[in-house]
Structure formats: structure tokens, C-alpha cells
Write a structure and sequence with these properties.
Structural class: mainly alpha
Helix content: 40-55%
Oligomer: single chain
Order of helices and strands: HHEEEEHHHHHHHH
Number of strands: 4
Mean pLDDT: 92
Low-confidence stretches: none
Strand content: 5-15%
Number of helices: 10
Amino acid sequence: MSDKKYELLKAFPTNIQNDVMVVLGKINQTTELDFSHCFEVNYCGSVLNIPERIYYNEPSSSQLNSFTEQQQVIIACLFTRNHNGFIREVNLRKIIHRSNNYNWIIPYLLRLTGEYVIEILQVIKSNLDKVNKGIIKDFIVDNPRFYNTIESRVISYWDCYYRNKYPNKEDYVGFEIIQYFRSLLK
């Protein structure tokens, strides 16, 4: 495992690092790139450094079947940061309903909210009722700067890519998600 790959340990809480190590041992780079810079969030008193994009091959189905459930969630979280939007969406679907058991997925989920791929946003919106509201609220309260960046990105992507299709910004799915998050903070 390259030294750089070890840095992905910082993307998860320390109490699950043994499982993260297992996962990191099974994924391989797709190109000379491995992952891009990281964004920083506070999680339960610790700082997580989660990559903006990763450039790794997903494990095969047979490899995935050999992992524990928690290891599979770790893999899915990592691959929500993949450079390929289709892969991000597939892995989002694997984790979005698991926040009750694995509340460390929340920063991955919220980061996806600030992206331009409308299909990903639609998956988030249609599954918000499956995500623990209290965990979302606590995370947003603990990470106001991160959350403000997410809101700003939603506005920017609407303006750049979706303003013509959704002239009333409240009709854009990204704003619907943000309104939902704001309602949790009241």
C-alpha cells in the first residue's frame, strides 16, 4: 500500500480504522492519480479529512462479498468520492439508508448534496426520510463552515447548469434538499 493511501485513514473515525485498513488493502489505483485534496469536517470531536475525488478501482463483487457489512459501508463511502458520477450514485444508494448504524456516513452524504449531478441529488431527496434527522442536524451544527460551502455550491450549480430548466430556484432539487436541512435546524 502506498504511503498516500494511508492518508485515507483520516477520512474515517479512529474506532473503525482496522476495517478501513482492510478496505485500503483491497483497492487499487486506476491511474497515476490516487486522490485529490481533502475537505475537513468535525465528527464527534475528531477531524476527518475526506478526499474530494478518488481514483481507485472498485473491488469486484466477489471481493465485496468477503467484506463485513461495516467494511462494505466504508468502501461505499469512499466510492461516493469517485471521479465518476455514476459510481458516486451507485455507492450513495448503498449507504443512504444506513445512518442509524453508521452515522459517520453523514459527511459523505452532505458533500454529495453540493455536487452538480442532478441524478445524485434526486437520490438524496427521495431518501431523506431514511436518514437520521438528529445526526444530520448535529453534524450541520458542528460544521457550519462546511455546510455553508455546501449551500453555496447548490446555488452556484443551479445558476451555472440548471437555471434555464428551473427558473424558480425552489423547484431545483438541490434547493429542496437545502430547505429540508434548514427545517431540521429550527
